[in-house]
Amino acid sequence: MSAAEVDALLERLVAQFESPYDFLRELVQNAMDAGSDRVEVTLECHPLGEDPGSGASSDELIFELTILDTGAGMDEAIIDQELTRLFSSGKSGDRTMAGGFGIGFVSVFAWEPEAVLLHTGRAGESWELVFHGDRSFEKVAVEDPIEGTTISLFRRGRASEREAIADAIRDSLWRWCRFCPLELSFEDLSGDEPAELIQDSPEPTELGLGAGLTRAEVRGESTLRVSFAVPPNAVFLRRGLILAEGGPKQLLAKVADALGTSADHLQIWADSPLLRTSLARDTVLHDEGRDAVEGRLLSLLTQLREDLLARLEQLAATGEGELDDADDPAVDPRWTHERHAIYGALHAHLELEYGHLERKVRSRAILRDLVHARALSLDAAVQRMGARPLLVAAPSVVRPAVGASEGETPLADALAQLIRDLRPTSFPVLAGDFRDDRSWLAALATLTGAELSPVERAIARVVPHVDEAAGLCGVVESLLRGLGCEQTVVRVGQFVDLLGRPERSPVFGPEVVGAASPLAFHGGRTIPAVSLVRRTVWLNVHNSLVEAAIDRFTERPLVAGLALTCGLLGHLDQAADVNDVAHLAEQLERDSRREARK
Question: Which InterPro entries does the UniProt record give (predicted)?
Answer without folding.
Answer: HATPase_C_sf
